[in-house]
Request: fold
Amino acid sequence: MEKDIIILGIESSCDDTSAAIIRNGVLLSNVVASQAVHESYGGVVPELASRAHQQNIVPVVHEALKRAHIAKEELSAVAFTRGPGLMGSLLVGVSFAKGLARSLDIPMIDVNHLQAHVLAHFVKEMDEETNQPQFPFLCLLVSGGNSQIIQVKAYNDMEVLGQTIDDAAGEAIDKCSKVMGFGYPGGPIIDRLARKGNPKTFSFSKPHIAGYDYSFSGLKTSFLYSLRDWLKEDPDFIEKNKEDLAASLEATVVDILMDKLRKVAKDRRIRNVAVAGGVSANTGLRNAFHEYAQKYGWNIYIPKFSYTTDNAAMIAMAGYFKFMNREFCSIDLPAYSRVSI
Ligand code: KG4
Reply:
């Protein structure tokens, strides 16, 4: 009988400490500890994030092993997020992975966080029918730190065709939410409010950028200045219009994202289109994907909510693919805060 391949995945690039176990390509556990400590600051505080990772990492890994009914001695390899991300946060996961791999004398696998978001589409749970994307496919990767259109030719062959030249879509939503005085992160709040609002009430500026790149800083400014003018006339403007403001903001972001994605799909003649990253939890964006599937005959791939935001299941999955290719890394490998796909 062939030996089981059991991968522990570790994610610590931003403000979620997560560990997951995958056996022979099937997910056994995925534990995520989110850090509430940042809420009162309206954004992630790097130093607090790394401290919280230090507190969480041991219990989170322990819990992932326990839920999977796996002893650490059974692990075949440790996969970890090498980057991109916050350096202090990454170092906690990278150092832990190094220590564990060395103590168990098993290989280490470095994972690119952005590639892992794309590979989240291949996470398979026990007894689950999955709808996995067929190669080649396009993936719209939208999170708090990234907005990219990626052509995925194989598990390990991805090309960035377009990306934001300034802010990410998630960051723009979070900032606009913050100027309205809502909590952090703004994405889920805007999503909830938008469901009750009219997306056509307000219009905000859209960028005119050539090619497949995005820009969201102009939208942020347009939102801020419009709001400032409206508030001068009526100090209760936000409270009275919050649903319509959220719906109009969401619709603008979704339009910007989908316009470019459609352009790429048309030019490259690709009909398999996926979405990934934290913002792919957004209801308006998910609805737009379904609409485009109808209109343009796309085969669409939308991840489960649990695999949209940062999680270690996607890191373990990416690690599993690399393990099958015997792509291991050395123990002196540094973390990196910035890196492309
Ligand atoms: O991938 P992710 O967890 O990691 C970072 O890049 O940090 O993405 C987080 C982003 C945040 O900007 C958050 O507001 C956004 O995803 N987000 C959403 C929704 N849920 C999370 N944005 C819009 N609608 C949502 N439902």
